[in-house]
Amino acid sequence: MTIARSATARPDRRKLRVGAFVALLTGLVALQLLAPLAAHADEVDTDTYPYRVSGNVQLDGEPLEGVELNVEGNGIDTDVVTDEAGQWAVGVPERNADYTVTLDEDTLPEGIAVVDETSDTPNVKEVTVGPGGRVAVNYFIGEGTRNVTGLFDVVVERVINGLSFGLMLALAAIGLSLVFGTTGISNFAHAEMVTFGAITTFVFANLAGWPIWVAIPIAVVLSAVLGLGLDVAVWRPLRRRRVGVVQLMIVSIGLSLALRYTYQYFIGGNTQQLPGATASSINLFGSVSMTVIDMVSVVISIVALLAFAAWLLFTRIGKATRAISDNPSLAAASGIDVDRVVRIVWIIAGGLAGLAGVLFAYYRPGLKWDMGSEVLLLLFAAVTLGGLGTAFGAAVGAIIIGLVVEVSTLWIPADLRFAAPLVVLIVILLFRPQGILGRRERIG
Amino acid sequence: MDWLQILSNTASSIISPATIAYALAALGLAVHFGYAGLLNMGIAGFMALGAYGYAISILTFGLPWYVGVLVGIVAALIFALVLGIPTLRLRGDYLAIVTIAAAEVLRLLFLTSAFDDVTGSADGLSGYHTEFRADNPIPPGSYGFGPWVYNEVGWWVRILGFIALVLAAIVVYRAVNSPWGRVLKGIREDEDAVRSLGKNVFSYKLQALLLGGGIAALGGIVYAMDRNVNSGVYVTSLTFFVYTALLLGGAATVFGPLLGSVIFWVIQTFLSNLLPALVSADILPFMTSIQAATVRFILTGIALMLIVIFRPQGILGNKKELTFVK
User: What is the ipTM of this complex?
Assistant: First the structure.
């Protein structure tokens, strides 16, 4: 019984550890004798051995009872089951030693899995019992697919995720690009404008307890106000002083650091979840599924991008914005109020960045004080890829970056996925330095 | 509140290995940014290559530690070549984006579990100090006076770091006050003017990138000699902090980076000791001790903004010299 379950739960480990098979088998036979005893124990061998590996299996703060785990290594191979508080502990003989902890996903409730995008086998963890003799093992458990089957389904799923991520990046990237185009600032603090949207949503939805569909628009409006506030307080005075673009860039770095740590000051260093972060997923076809949140996120992104495009192409202010991006002095000479347009650009950039932040908090999932800096380089990559200062180029660049991030995990380890678009950026700059939609004269 | 302890820790940070490492990195950045006008936003990547080159050549290849130092520097030089050849012909902000991206790619490569055997992934590297410490000529014991009392290992790292720093400062001082250095400053002020004089601007920029990159790698090595190597150190924030130290002292000076690093670390150490002490003494009742620890980073960001706006030439810099390229 035990052997059969182990075989289904851990096929990948069987493949990897053929050499250890005999030892494993001996362990399992010994274990089978104890199986009736071990089947309902939440603390195994904690009196026998001096050191312990322990953990707490929870879903959204609710303990999960009856989840089976296995701890293996240094001569032990022990099964353990979580108690009503979701807790478990296993005594182990050695400290300063490595153990392998496996969570049997078949014992989790239906539709629930261990979610960890940095690993192909998130239910298997290598842990080290340090000099303290104790180690805690925690799994992030949520909605998820346990094993995606079929290459085609995998590719389709990655492409869908990539598009959803890319559209979200595009929202933030066009703001960054507009600001760069009209003022010449490479705004590193844009990352913090992204984080701001997620944090204000958290404040209104979680702390104040307002419905999420009220909290998100408020967050977007407040983000736009932040954009305006930064322009009035920081950037406009600096424009008046005629501070150079490199200085402005370093000012934005200082602003980014100050804002980022201010967020940490207020919300702490932990990851927080927005309401509905674990929405159920809907099966599209095969094993391809999307959560409702993902679908809503894609729709919101597309609507916001189309509205932005209409604004930029068909309104007077949009036209003035493009004129300033093209040639600020000429635009000023033709009677465009540059200061006013720049102020509007900051408002729009702030609002779009805040919206992107909310969507990013659902994509990650969770919001954190430095979440914006996780995507900052991807945003710069998107803006550069599309051609510095062209808003639509930034949107195209962002979608390409989103696709590269998700699809590249087919070939490279998942923890390198944010590196892939940066490599793509460097390579593209070698061949087409002006970017995809940029004009050749823009490089100097 | 133990004022003596706070002041002692603060004074001790003047010659800490971290200060020396920052001074070396900032000196390298002064060559890039201050003298050649190159917007290198990837100084953390150069330091990471120095540190990992040093640690990996000892741990994986079993080389002596002084060969490890060379490996670290050579790795950074290769990185400078690979980055510089394609991007130095482009406008400044492209170099900034490419260097910051490349440094982040390096960090992710050191962090990924795919190369765990060599890089130690998230745990980083440790246990490479044995031979370095065995070659220490200082007999075991504590030396020094006042707040500057360290054991033989502490002094060994500091003395080597100082030698590296003094040598690097002499090299940079000689280089920037030579005809070569004048061309470099000319490139910073007006690239086209220098080009019209028949100078190969690209080649000068590449040489500056190599010189500064090698010195920054030395900074990473000194950091690695003192503690373990971990990819969590070489984040973009490190680049920003080195910029803060550099701009504080003066970007286009030789002694500015050294002074800036000392001031940066003295203030950081002072605040990181003082603020939690104030909280535990109930003088700042609205703050937790964790919040108190983040305040100094907020202040760092604000300080960086204020320096760049109100004193862009830094403490030691000359206002007449154009430090920031248009």
Answer: 0.92
Per-residue model confidence (pLDDT) at position A264: 94
Domain co-membership, A224 together with A109 = no
**CA–CA distance, B290 with B273 (Å, rounded to integer):** 12
pLDDT in tens, A373-388: 989 999 999 998 887 7
Cβ of A265 and B308 within 8 Å? no
pLDDT band at A46 (very low <50, low <70, confident <90, very high): confident
Residue A433 has pLDDT above 80, yes or no: no
What is the domain range of residue A305?
A: 151-442
The b/e string for B233-242 (b: 16+ C-beta within 10 A; e otherwise) is: bbbbbbbbbb
- Same domain? For A127 and A173 the reply is no
Residues A73 and A179 in one domain: no
Statement to judge: residues A135 and A220 lie in one domain: no
Say yes or no: A309 contacts chain B, CB-CB below 8 A: no
Q: Which residues contact A91 (CB under 8 A, 6 or more apart)?
A: A43, A44, A45, A46, A47, A48, A49, A50, A51, A52
CATH number at residue A124: 2.60.40.10
What total of structural domains would you count in chain A? 2
State the pLDDT at residue A111.
Answer: 67
A258/B112 CB distance under 8 A: no
Instruction: For residue B236, give the chain A residue with the closest CA.
Output: A373
Residues A121, A19 share a domain:
yes
